[in-house]
Amino acid sequence: MSKQFDVVVIGGGPGGYIAAIRAAQLGFQVACIDEWKNAAGGPAPGGTCTNVGCIPSKALLQSSEHFDHANHHFAEHGISAKDVKMDVAKMIARKDNVVKQNNDGILYLFKKNKVTFFHGRGSFAGKAEGGYTVNVAGKTEESITAKQVIIATGSNARALPGTPFDEVNVLSNDGALRVGAVPKKLALIGSGVIGLEMGSVWRRLGADVTILEGLPTFLGAVDEQIAKEAKKAFDKQGLKIELGVKVGEIVNGKKGVTVNYTNAKGEAIVLEADKLIVSIGRVPNTIGLNAEAIGLAVDERGAIVVDGDCKTNVPGVWAVGDVVRGPMLAHKAEEEGVAVAERIAGQHGHVNFNTIPWVIYTSPEIAWVGRTEQQLKADGVAYKAGTFPFLANGRARALGDTTGMVKFLADATTDEILGVHMVGPQVSELISEAVVAMEFKASAEDIARICHAHPSLSEATKEAALAVDKRTLNF
């Protein structure tokens, strides 16, 4: 006999496991299905983010940053460090341990919140009395029934047509996190978040890195002034970024990968590399979901069709995260997961797409929320801008990292904050103040009049807000 639940969540990534926990907190009997396996074949909930995305990439970025500092920055602090070497196997092992700690943490949270966990692949069998039947294909075959189903099956890396991932020479984000030795030459296609972060990791460790980008502009979604500042820093570091390229034939051979491309000048270039990382976006994952069994609508991109509340066309079935419209961000998925659980309980879940922060964890870090200057111009919005460089920030000088700036954009009439854009040290943490301010519809003056600790990097945020009214104090 099929086990009956109030809510079944298919997928244990950020959207799924958070939805399951919130639904359980609200008093529902909840099950969560996830098929991800660790090296031993055991459960590894957390999805792409925990297993081959956000968490492991940050672990490698941290390790490579320590190595870079030891080689290039310790001396200026009076620290002598000669013949510094990187044990790549140990670095990867540490990364794997960080991932396992997160996997185990999620399993603990399921137990704590009385969420029943099923290890396997979930798929719809059809409608049933009392809701829907979902099959679980794992070590054993199981069938469960739920009144409400939340789909949180995430996304997969998009491959280049004709160049499949072999995760040996042609790598997705998964393979890029498991490289066993520093490649002499590394090529990347796509200068988005994954391309820049992985390129940064291996450049710091000694690889000769070239990033190929089809678009003529660098980080087109980022405020132009911030993107230019970031590009200047990356160029100085030796990260080679070619824009406006047209990638042609790619040959995956025994000794590496050959990428034929045409550069922005129209010149034909042959790039030889030991490894190629392809990071050209992600596609919604509905493989094996058997959506047709319940008549679930999927769009031409492969995404599940939902309304503004994450409801699908099928009553009682919801979808969140990368498998639906909107930005493919772990924290966006989490917010949708919470909102859907609360809507099932009759509450009013809240997700504001306009205040979702974005972060690229390179050095310098890049973070932003709200609209860019180019978007405000295109929308015909009258605005005021204020910037403040980290070069004039005392804490940044003490850290030895004065690259970048904070930029505020505020309504010319009301002074309401419309966007905040940052490039520089630890801006992944600084951006939260801007998110809070925008959620409360604060003005730039509100931030300018708040006392910030001295010396702190956050003073750059206050000073940029002051700059909107042309009254910075330290620049």
Automatic annotation (TrEMBL):
The active site is at 454 (proton acceptor). GO terms for molecular function: dihydrolipoyl dehydrogenase (NADH) activity; flavin adenine dinucleotide binding. One of its GO terms (cellular component) is cytoplasm. Signal peptide: none annotated. Keywords: Cytoplasm, FAD, Flavoprotein, NAD, Nucleotide-binding, Oxidoreductase, Redox-active center. It comes from the Bacteria. It holds the Pfam family Pyr_redox_dim. Disulfide bonds join 49-54. GO terms for biological process: 2-oxoglutarate metabolic process. It is an enzyme of class 1 (oxidoreductase). It is found in: Cytoplasm. It catalyses: N(6)-[(R)-dihydrolipoyl]-L-lysyl-[protein] + NAD(+) = N(6)-[(R)-lipoyl]-L-lysyl-[protein] + NADH + H(+). Binds 1 FAD per subunit. Coiled coil: none annotated. Residues 356-465 form the Pyridine nucleotide-disulphide oxidoreductase dimerisation domain. Residues 5-337 form the FAD/NAD(P)-binding domain. Its EC number is 1.8.1.4. FAD binds at residues 58, 122, 153-155, 322, 328-331. NAD(+) binds at residues 190-197, 213, 281. The keyword Lipid metabolism does not apply. Its cofactor is FAD. The active site is a redox-active disulfide bond. Belongs to the class-I pyridine nucleotide-disulfide oxidoreductase family. This is Dihydrolipoyl dehydrogenase. It comes from Limnohabitans curvus. The lineage of its organism: Bacteria, Pseudomonadati, Pseudomonadota, Betaproteobacteria, Burkholderiales.
